[in-house]
Design a protein that fits this description.
The protein is α+β, with helices and mostly antiparallel strands and about 425 residues long. Helices cover about 35% and strands about 20% of the residues. It folds into 2 domains: about 25-40 and about 190-420, Creatinase/methionine aminopeptidase superfamily (Creatine Amidinohydrolase, Alpha-Beta Complex); about 60-180, Creatine Amidinohydrolase, Chain A, domain 1, CATH 3.40.350. The radius of gyration is 23 Å and the shape is elongated.
């Protein structure tokens, strides 16, 4: 799923369109049968086993993450941090409920939640101190801080509202509030082995759902509304064990694909229209993010040309990924090909973004970025070319950053000739 940013332009270059192909050939059909005819009971058993392993790790990983955070707080001379962003609370505690916060001190941590989650918090965070609040969050923070040596309290500036900050200042006495920026999100950038394995599982679910949708060819699309196709894809992901979609699925037919963040409508998809699908699964809290373009008939020459350019750009971007490389250099590796082909102005967003507990995380793979890739980050690579009134192409995969290069986590085909449905 793209993030919008401006781009440049350059001379034009043409590309071929490839030969039609449909997914009923023997190799892909065997793959579909093996994956889609797998016993639901077996898959559910796998999911339960995976969730048991996740819970077993849940009491250890958050502790280590909080220790790394405490070191950062000490450098800032801040005695405690009030964590309010839901994804950050989950990352540091393992708790998945809403309307909650986490206070992290030098040698202590307290989860603040309400009575709706009293049982849930015992299951998810058995070793964590919990405060069940009965009033406003600011007042609960004040109660927890009593008797603790906290003179400077950090707040997540990106998430805490001005109203909450004012209320908190009223009730915590002489303690100084210190705005912090990205302390926890920086920790979340680099994934550990269990996080990577969970993201891979989210990718596999998304892929299997897509294969299931496209197994019947063009008839899965033609005559159906975009929203109906999006709904079926999300249903299939849930059937395969996903908690839900990583974000509202995009299904954009024909000229609608020229809108990067199009919202699927009810108009029926017509025979011969290209269909852009941007989707992802959320599994055990972690997101996947993929985009493909399929063709329900003959490939329109103009769309075929930009598809080949976008695919070459994506391959160049993936090849450029390795730990230590400047993010803007990775963006440039893909963007330069699009600019040289004459479509620079039609590529108006960054090359990619991090994924994890949220669908858009740091780092931003963009020509504006000043940081470098680090081992353990998982990023999308998704160049796009959008022609108003004609259509658009975006091709997206998820890539793990490693010292020696990028490891492609997704495996769906994307060669132009293989995207034509019979």
């Amino acid at each position: 799923m793209d993030s919008i940013e401006p781009a440049a332009d350059g001379p034009r270059r043409a590309h071929g369109c490839g030969q039609p192909w449909h997914p009923s050939n023997e190799l892909l059909l065997a793959l579909i049968r093996r994956r889609l005819l797998e016993s639901p009971l077996t898959f559910r058993g796998f999911r339960k086993d995976a969730m048991r392993r996740t819970r077993a790790r849940s009491t250890h990983a958050p502790v280590a993450r909080r220790r790394r955070l405490v070191k950062k707080l000490a450098e800032m001379k801040v005695e405690a941090l009030l964590v309010t962003a839901p994804a950050n609370v989950r990352y540091l505690s393992g708790f998945t409920g809403e309307d909650s916060a986490l206070l992290v001190g030098q040698r202590w941590a307290v989860l603040l939640t309400d009575g709706r989650f009293a049982t849930q918090v015992q299951r998810e965070c058995p070793a964590l101190e919990v405060h069940i609040r009965r009033g406003a969050m600011a007042q609960a923070v004040s109660v927890v801080l009593r008797g603790r040596r906290v003179r400077r309290l950090g707040l997540e500036a990106e998430h805490a509202t001005l109203e909450f900050r004012e209320k908190l200042a009223e009730v915590i006495g002489g303690k100084k509030l210190v705005a912090t920026h990205g302390l926890v999100t920086e920790l979340r950038c680099r994934k550990d082995e269990s996080e990577i394995a969970t993201i891979v599982r989210a990718v596999r679910i998304a892929e299997r759902a897509f294969l299931g949708l496209t197994a019947s060819g063009a008839k899965a699309f033609v005559g159906r509304g975009e929203a109906a196709v999006a709904g079926e894809l999300e249903y299939r992901m849930r059937q395969l064990g996903a908690e839900g979609a990583s974000f509202p699925t995009i299904v954009a037919a024909g000229a609608n694909a020229a809108l990067p963040h199009y919202w699927p409508g009810g108009r029926a998809i017509r025979k011969g229209q290209p269909v852009l699908i941007d989707w992802g699964a959320r599994f055990a809290g972690y997101c996947s993010d993929l985009t493909r373009v399929v063709f329900t008939g003959r490939i329109p020459p103009q769309v075929g040309r930009i598809y080949e350019v976008a695919l070459a750009a994506q391959k160049a971007g993936i090849a450029a990924i390795r730990a230590g490389r400047a993010l803007k250099a990775v963006d440039a590796a893909a963007r330069n090909l699009i600019v040289e082909a004459g479509f620079g102005e039609q590529f108006g967003h960054g090359l990619g973004h991090g994924i994890g507990l949220e669908i858009h995380e740091a780092p931003a793979v963009s020509w504006r970025s000043t940081d470098r890739l680090a081992a353990g980050e998982v990023v999308t690579v998704e160049p796009g070319i959008y022609l108003p009134g004609v259509g658009g192409v975006r091709i997206e995969d998820d890539v793990l950053v490693q010292a020696g290069g990028g490891r492609l986590l997704s495996s769906l085909t994307k060669e132009l000739g293989q995207m034509v449905l019979s």
